[in-house]
Structure formats: C-alpha cells, structure tokens
Amino acid sequence: MLTPEQNVVRRRRLVKVGQEISRLGFVKGTAGNASVRADDGFLVTPSGMSYADMKPNDIVHLDMEGNIRQGRWLAKSNTKPSSEWHLHQAIFEARPDVNAVLHTHPTFSTTLAVLGKPLPAIHYLIGIVNGCEVPCAPYRTFGTGELSEIVVKTMGDRHACLLDHHGLVAVASDLWDALELTIQIESLAELYWRACAMGEPSIIDDEEMDRVCAKFKAMNYGPQ
Ligand SMILES: [Zn+2]
Fold first, then answer.
1. In terms of residue numbers, what domain contains 200?
2. CA distance 184 to 221
3. How many angstroms separate the alpha carbon of residue 207 from the centre of ligand 1?
4. What is the C-alpha separation between 63 and 37, in angstroms, rounded?
5. What does the pLDDT read at residue 219?
6. The total number of structural domains that make up the chain
7. Would the pTM of this model clear 0.90, i.e. be above it?
C-alpha cells in the first residue's frame, strides 16, 4: 500500500511528465496520457485536461477493472480517467516488468504510424526497445479493448509500439525511462524520415540486432 507521500510523489511525476511531453511537442493540446502502477491498480492522467492546468489531485487512481479509487484525492466530481485507460490496464496486466506507460503522438513516429509502417533498425539504438524494430499495431478505434488487445499482442516483450493511424506507446519500469525512450524513438523516426528523403537506408540485420539487444541488456542500458 502506497503511503500518502509516495502517492503524491507519483501524482507529481505524472503531472511533470505530462508537461514535458507537451513542451517537447509530443502531443498537441490534451492528447496523450501517462500512468504508473499504484497499489493493486494504477494512477493515470485525466481525460481532456490541459497539461498546464493539471494538478496532482486531478490524477485518477483506478483498480485493474477500471473502477475509480480516489480516496482522499478526489478533487472534482467530473474528473474522468484518460479515454485510453484500457490500454494502460491491458499493458500492466500483460507485462509484470512494466511500471509506467506513456502514450504520445510525436510527429515523426506518428508519420510512420499513419503509413502503417514499423520503425526498422536503421540505427543500432533501436535495440533499446528490446527488439529489431518498433512494430506498428494494426488500426483499432481509440479507447477500446480491441486497441489494447492488438497493441499488447504486437508489442510482445518489446518496450514500445506504434499504433496505426494514431501514435506511439512506450513502456518501462519507471516513468522517466518511458519518457527517455519516447524521446529516443522520436529522434530515430526523424532520422529515418531524413534518410528516406536522400535515399533508401539499409537495415541492420536481425542477427546483429540480437547482439546489440544482448549488449544493452548486459549494460542495463535503456528501460529495464
Ligand atoms: Zn492517442
């Protein structure tokens, strides 16, 4: 059970990461959402609220069935969890190694997602997702159980997944690692876009990417 101090620290971190994704331009307006595990459920950013206005009290505590467990934190009766809470719940359920989920719509990553394309190994750093590419999950309607299901399936044991015609989700053992991963993936997606503008980049083969992933694991590099 989280102490009130631990609870408020996690709420503040969610607000801070929301402000960061907004500042970095990874979301426009109120889009995107973030969560961390808390007790037998998770804390998730609220629906339809600007990150500039968000306060720790606005973060919603849900159990794994999606019931609100605000306790003394209930600030406003109309505060609703992010419409993508199903996605966060499904990832926490499927991935015991994950403690934080960050969903954004960064321009270059989402450009690939709009084309329904994965981000291939055009650079060895792709290995930080624990695989040879960032896969792209087929399109499903936002906020649905169908979307959660297909993302969990497509992501497998990797740390990130593109969502066709939608955006990006990054997962980690810690919220800052999920943000760092999002920053790295967006930078690699931009690099891919630039390389494609000048030619056809070659892709690092799977055997070499297995070696890179093993090396990252041994170094504890990237999200754990
Ligand atoms: Zn979204």
1. 4-218
2. 13
3. 33
4. 10
5. 84
6. 1
7. yes
Q: Which amino acid is at 112?
A: L
Residue 15 resides in a domain: yes
Q: Which positions are annotated as active-site residues?
A: 84
The Å distance, Cα 215 to ligand 1 centre, comes to 32
pLDDT in tens, 163-193: 999 999 999 999 999 999 999 999 999 999 9
| CATH of residue 148 | 3.40.225.10
**Contact (CB, 8 A) for 153 and 77:** no
Provide the token pair at 197. 């503008």
What is the whole-number distance in angstroms between the Cα of residue 185 and the centre of ligand 1? 16
Residue 77: pLDDT band with limits 50, 70, 90: low
Q: Is 57 exposed, middle or buried (0-12, 13-18, 19+ CB in 10 A)?
A: middle
Question: 196: CA distance to ligand 1 center in Å?
Answer: 26
Tokens of 46: 């609220």
Q: Is residue 140 part of a domain?
A: yes
Residue 47 lies in a domain: yes
**223 within a domain of the structure (yes/no):** no
Indicate left, alpha or beta for 89 from its phi (over 0: left) and psi (-120 to 50: alpha).
alpha
